[in-house]
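Our working data are protein records whose layout never changes between entries. The record below serves as our worked example for the rest of this section:
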Amino acid sequence: MTTLFSDEYWMRYALELAHKAEQQGEIPVGAVIVADNQVIGEGWNQSISNPDPTAHAEIVAIRQAAQKLNNYRLVDTTLYVTLEPCIMCAGAIIHSRIKRIIFGAFDRKTGAAGSFIDVLSYPGINHLSIIESGICADDAAQLLSEFFKRRRAEIKLNKKMNSYQ
């Protein structure tokens, strides 16, 4: 008998991937795509290390899932991502026909699932996903907040050190 994992289980998996991004100096966002209770794609932000502005966690996971299924359409799949997708990622989600999007923290600056703009529910769009938010939101938001707090402190320290030279 196969154990059916909960949305929280998969979001915690995505949070583990976000920690991988953080360890690589990337903005800590993780994503996992699941079909039939199995991982078919996973990713974490890699824009800085690659360098590739499209290497967001969602895009990396979508590319991997499409390769695994040998199909760019990812119907009947669920994408779990720790941060609300941006406009670019929302476009990829629409084109790949992902059925469900579950995200943790809202992104008030660039979120495209209702926070900043609502691309994923735009009237007349050719594919509408089921969208749920807030799963492990506090954990995802805290991870991001602590990351940017450290980053700001590092920048401040570097400026101070450079002023002494």
The first helix runs from residue 7 to 23. Residues 143 and 149 are 10 Å apart (CA to CA). The radius of gyration is 17 Å. The helical segments are 7-23, 57-69, 87-96, 137-163.
